[in-house]
Amino acid sequence: MRRGRKRPAGGEHAMLKEKTNRWFLALGAALLCAGLGAAALWDLEIDLALYSPGFLPAVLMEAFGWFPQYLPAVVLCVCIALDGARSMPLRAAGGLLAVAGSGILLYMGAHHLVKRGMSGPSITLWTVLLGGLSLGICALALYRSRSGGRKKLEFVCLWGTVYLLAGLAAINIIKAVWQRTRFDDMLTAAGGGFEGAFAQFTSWMQPFGNGGSSFPSGHTAAACSVFILTLACDVCLKWNRRRTLVWALCWAYVAFMALCRLVIGRHYLSDTLAAAFVMLLLYLGMRKTKWYRAGARELTAPGT
């Protein structure tokens, strides 16, 4: 009779399972490095070949694809508002921040569509569909966590908020140093014609450029916030069993956002790859902190 292999319990099983996916992270890092090398040679040529500013999926990703960076903070505020163990003023503040945050996200999404010249009815339609879908997924997560899973959801959203703040700081500091001019800004300054439009183009390896905020891509960095779904794999056994699938879907989402940023002319390949690389480093560093690991062990201890 075949003897079953002993399975570690709780957090030990989660960490053991995570190790089997290190090859996935290593492959992603290798592709990012190879892509940055290629971008050093063909950044501008790739944008010229892909440029199609009216491509609807790229427009919609610009408007709503960055939501994953901010939704954890909104959900965290809702968790605080629903926690009867907290003081009433804190719960009220959490509720108000959640409502205000949701409204700001929807407004900014619609504002992006306005800047792209979309008609009023189309703006309303896509804001309701995609904005509503995003908030609906959050509401579903809150509903599914009502029976014992609220602490785990709060843990994931807390670290998602930490990831948000760290990402914003890192990306904007690098933008301020690099000062790289965007593809479409150069095109607009030249009156829309391609002839002689890109005299201000600089390689991603050159900091202190000609002015702008192209490098690295803020939208791609925001899309990388979907990596927080893998944090659920550390505290929930059902998610843990699907960790590889979760990682694959996360990378697919980030890759699609990166492609859309090239197509719409807001970024170069190197901008998107650098953003993904920075956010991957921040993610790995965050998961290695003693505070994160202690919290994950506590939530996966036997009996919890």
Automatic annotation (TrEMBL):
Pfam families: PAP2 (PF01569). The chain crosses the membrane at residues 63-82, 94-111, 123-143, 155-178, 218-237, 244-264, 270-286. The keyword Transmembrane applies. SMART domains: acidPPc. InterPro entries: PAP2/HPO (IPR000326), PAP2/HPO_sf (IPR036938). Keywords: Membrane, Transmembrane, Transmembrane helix. Residues 158-287 form the Phosphatidic acid phosphatase type 2/haloperoxidase domain. This is Phosphatase PAP2 family protein. It comes from Ruthenibacterium lactatiformans. The lineage of its organism: Bacteria, Bacillati, Bacillota, Clostridia, Eubacteriales.
